[in-house]
Amino acid sequence: MPTGAGLEAASSRGEVIERLKRLSTSPYEPESPVAHPLVTLAVRLANRSRDASRWTPHLCHGSDAEKTEFEYGLAPVFLETVAPWLAPDAMAGKAVLDVGCGWGGKAIYFAQHLGPSRMEGFDLPGVFDPAAPLEFASRLGVSACAFRTGHAEAVPYGDAEFDLLLCEDVLEHVADPGRTLQECRRVLRGGGTLIALFPSFRMLDAHHLDRALTLPGLHYLLSMKAWAGGLNHYLLTHEGEATFEPFSEAIATAFHRCVTRDLNGMSFRQFCDLVRVSGLETETLRLLPRPTPDNGRSVWLKKLYRTLCRWPPLAEILCQRVVYVARKP
Q1: Model confidence, pTM
Q2: pLDDT of residue 52
Q3: Rounded distance, CA 225 to CA 38, Å?
């Protein structure tokens, strides 16, 4: 296996890109591999301290069935996070849509435990296979859910079909989040509710490099182009060792000058601007700090963290997610 500059010498750019595509499940073009010493050092350090318990099928070539089951197990975590804005019986007898449902596991959990009259979910064509969650739901004896493919900027349902929309970790990915909000408004019934959770790109963990590196704030050290190119180079020169998928090409968007194509780079302020023209009535729009352990040894650190999160220059950087709850008039 050629290493360093030898990688580019051994193959044309087209051949190198094709090698990356064969290792990827993404619909986007991969970033051209370019070695970077800081990226290589970071990956080597991460590999030395890699914790096997952090493995998830989402990030490490798991099967669709594994991804669905993994998401099913995470549904209670989502419900706990949104508990202040979602009553325990909020889905009972209601039509519910999971916008950008991932691999459908959470939707199956909701259908099984929370009593919606109709539970639907959709995600990207070419990436999401509805057959996988339907098979898992069948094994659990859950029939009140259905899945299809589509884009959040053109939600594949008719007007006013749903009472409740859930949208977790989607709005940072869509190319046009403003259009997505308008589509959410369209498919909601009057008085219906949208609950969205997502990280803004300014947050420390929002670089989405975590299938290779989980260190926070990497996008503040180097450009996303440098990280994507460096990680793709490392992947090709360490194929027996590196297990992560390639990273997509870096582009400029309406929100940021350089992000990988699967992100839009949107900040909290930019999202607030979109909300004002969405036609939805905002009930909650705020930054959520990350959960901190409740034990005696960390009390002072927890207090310091919460204090810093209230300081405007640091609040968005240190917080973990945006929560947005809105109602259709």
Answers
A1: 0.93
A2: 47
A3: 13
